[in-house]
Design goal:
By secondary structure, this protein is α+β, with helices and mostly antiparallel strands. The protein is built from 14 helices and 16 strands. The two termini are about 20 Å apart.
């Protein structure tokens, strides 16, 4: 807790320094100090600082702010959506989804969404849980064809609840664990089995002892992507289908998510957002890659498609008269599973991040990968949610400020629809703090 407070204080001090310098509008625009500062009027500056929490900003001005953030922070594309209860209120794309093809970003542009994928994987498991195939506190070894145990605690079971809430005692993925990304839909013979057997079995060809912490299972939270890869394999074991096919049959098609998949080859190539890295004045495109532990981060979708899923989560498991999950399962997923255990700026339910903010609980998930930064979140107080996809990786504090500002501006845009019961918007420093995991999700920057 003390470390979190100190980090939050440092962020606040940095923002204060930025705002008191000649680049007053940096925290909205990301203006580089080597360039001339952005010229803004007194009226614009008051809006940029957003001191009047009850003001409703003109929609066009918010769009201008978002575009300026993108320009100054070298974000090629943003697609975003606002939802309230069971209604998609607004969607829009900004910038270029593919700079080489000059393809504009649209609400129907398909992005890699990184760790938002975990909410889908958790939903798949909860559907199988509702069928009575397992209990959340069952030992996963009872359903696997190999053993998964922390070798320091060989007699302590690892349960579904632990895996789904990052409390299994698996470590935050060591950067050398394995090469996790590869082009397109290349398949790997022997994945997921016997790969996982060789990975989790001491003496196995892929075994890495650093994949385990010294904590007992259930004691501490460690954000372990590998655990969600294993959960994807358990979906296959229970259902008898591939993980992708199960999700298509039981989640994507029922929710009219027809531009959503874990396999890039099944999607329209001309609508894919290209991930980018900006370096020394040049936008370098990534190939359309996939990843080995794709149930943890390999989903591709649009803000429109994902809005259907978010609305189902917000509406007790129902979207357009389709019951995705029972209300009781939704409540479990949105409940912190280990209230006293966290070293993070968020807590965790079943596949969902939970943020306790100044404006109430926020529920959803963020994501970050090479050339990717994403967020799906809703405010529990008024059931207003936003979705935002960027085709740029979040790395530096400057990137995090830009990401947090876009989130904040989208909630300000939601004010125009009169759907927020509480006009107060979370502070910039809070949003930077809440979203810090995006900069260190799969890519492990120091």
């Amino acid at each position: 807790m003390k470390k979190v407070f100190i980090k939050k204080l440092l962020i606040s001090v940095l923002i204060a320094i930025i705002l008191s310098s000649t680049i007053t509008a940096f925290f909205v625009t990301g203006e580089n100090i080597d360039h001339q500062p952005l010229r803004v009027s007194d009226q614009e500056r008051s809006l940029l600082l957003i001191k009047n929490q009850h003001a409703v900003l003109p929609a066009g001005l918010i769009d201008i702010f978002i575009e300026r953030i993108m320009e100054r922070n070298h974000i090629s594309a943003v697609s975003a959506a606002i939802v309230h209860n069971d209604e998609l209120l607004w969607t829009q794309g900004y910038g270029l989804a593919d700079r080489e093809r000059k393809t504009p970003a649209e609400p129907t542009t398909i992005y890699l969404v990184a760790s938002i994928s975990k909410t889908i994987t958790a939903t798949a498991l909860m559907q199988l849980y509702e069928q009575g195939l397992f209990d959340l506190d069952d030992d996963i070894n009872s359903y696997l064809n190999f053993s998964v145990r922390n070798p320091r605690y060989p007699d302590m079971p690892i349960t579904f609840r632990m895996l789904l809430s990052h409390h299994s005692s698996m470590a935050v993925d060591p950067p050398t664990l394995f090469t996790r990304t590869f082009p397109g839909d290349l398949t790997i013979e022997g994945y997921p089995y016997p790969f996982y057997k060789e990975l989790f079995s001491p003496g196995g060809i892929h075994y890495v002892p650093q994949m385990w912490t010294e904590s007992r299972p259930g004691d501490d939270m460690n954000y372990a992507n590998l655990g969600f890869g294993l959960l994807g394999y358990l979906v296959e074991r229970f259902s008898g289908q591939s993980f992708e096919q199960y999700c298509q049959d039981h989640i994507f098609h029922p929710l009219d998510m027809y531009n959503t998949s874990f396999t890039v080859g099944s999607l329209a190539s001309d609508r894919l957002a290209r991930p980018y890295e900006y370096y020394q004045g040049v936008y370098y495109p990534y190939i359309q890659y996939t990843m080995m532990d794709y149930p943890a981060g390999g989903l591709r979708t649009t803000v429109v498609d994902l809005s259907h899923f978010l609305m189902a989560q917000m509406q007790n498991g129902t979207y357009n008269n389709v019951q995705l999950l029972a209300p009781e399962s939704i409540q479990i997923m949105h409940t912190v599973q280990y209230p006293n255990h966290t070293g993070y700026n968020f807590k965790y339910g079943i596949g969902f991040q939970i943020w306790e903010t100044q404006t109430g609980r926020h529920i959803g998930h963020s994501g970050g990968l090479f050339g990717v930064a994403t967020l799906m979140v809703y405010r529990e107080t008024d059931h207003t949610g936003i979705i935002m996809f960027l085709n740029k990786e979040i790395y530096t504090l400057r990137d995090q400020l830009a990401f947090a500002n876009i989130e904040r501006l989208l909630f300000l845009k939601a004010l125009r629809f009169g759907v927020l019961s509480n006009n107060q918007i979370d502070s910039l420093s809070d949003l930077v703090q809440y979203n810090s995991i995006v900069a260190n999700d799969f890519t492990h920057h120091p």
